[in-house]
Each structure stands twice: as structure tokens, then as C-alpha cells.
Amino acid sequence: MSYENVVVSRECEAVQIPHGHTVRIPEGTLAIITQALGGTYTLQIPSLGGLFRVADRDADAIGKESHGAAASVPGGAPGEAVSEEVVWNQLRNVYDPEIPVNIVDLGLVYDLRIEPLPEGGSSVQVAMTLTAQGCGMGPSIAMDAQRRLEDLPGVSEAQVRVVWDPPWNPSMISPEGKARLGMA
Q1: Is residue 67 part of a domain?
Q2: Number of domains within the chain
């Protein structure tokens, strides 16, 4: 993606990178969109001194069209079990705001379990890691994954845990991820 200059048209919420703090970006702020993947936007904002992640729900504030989480979510009917393929595809929409590769292709997802619930629907449990233990965006990335899983028809509950064993290393990146990063 090429960088795009924008002016924030209304105050909106963002998450500061890499600290993970929620901030308000004032109307009229000049920004540069550096990444637009998985329904989130990474903005460089010189006047605020750093990078910030804006969610799809605030896309209009930066001149983009919101795709709406429910509209882009495939799957079965609510109450039915969800397939593993649908869950993996949904996780491929979760990105580290500093890296243009999704968490699946980065090799950050260590375990995925789907269990049917007696009352219908599925429980989805994910264990994932981060590229660095000190990453302040870890909770934000895990919450993004959890919210996206909870949006899937057929998912009654989801839990995403961040784990550190085994430690992540670049050899865990998929061939597709390595190609995207120029490592192939």
C-alpha cells in the first residue's frame, strides 16, 4: 500500500502503538495512513508523536468506508457449530499494526480448539504469542482476535490467551508471510 495523507473529519478513538493505550484523535488532525489491513488502519500522526490504530467502526473519520464486522463474516447460522476453516479464515483478518502480515501467517497462533456447547454453538479457544514479549499491543491484538471470533455465527464464546512458550522466532512465519515481508 502506498501512504495516504488524510485529515481526521471528526474526533475518533485510536490505540497508540506499541503501548496499547486508547486515545482520542481530535477533529482536523493531519495523519498518514501507513497500513490498511483486516479492517483496521495504522496512522502516523506527527502532531501526536507516533503511530495509532483506528478500527473499522471509525473508518469514516479518516475518509474510508466502514465494512461492518457482521457484513464480512462468513459462517453458519447462530447456534450451529462453527467450522475450523471459518475460524482460521477469521484469524487471518487480525494484524499486528506494525507488520503487514496476519497473525496466522506470522506463526503467532499456537493452538486452536473448537468445542460444541450443549446449548448449541461453539466455544473457540486460541493460544497465541507475539513477536516480542515487551509488545504493548499484545492485549489489543488478542482482543481484536477474540472480538472477531465472537462475531462469527455459531460462536457462543471465545477466549484468546497470550502465551510465551515456545518463544516465537522468524522461522515460524509461513511461506506466504515470508514472501509478503520480502524474506522468501
Answers
A1: no
A2: 2
Place of cell 516465537: 168
CA distance 156 to 162: 21
Residue 170 region by backbone torsions, left for phi larger than 0, else alpha for psi between -120 and 50, else beta: alpha
**DSSP letter assigned to residue 62:** G
Domain closes at, from 16, 33, 62: 62
pLDDT of residue 76: 57
| pTM above threshold 0.70 | yes
Burial of 69-103, coded b for 16+ CB within 10 Å and e otherwise, reads beeebebbeeeebbbeebbeebbbbbbbbebbbbb
Note down the domain range covering 52.
Answer: 4-62
Which of 62, 87, 108 corresponds to the end of one domain?
A: 62
Q: Parallel, antiparallel, or unpaired: how do β-strands 122-128 and 30-37 relate?
A: unpaired
Where does the pLDDT of residue 111 fall: very low under 50, low under 70, confident under 90, or very high at 90 and above? very high
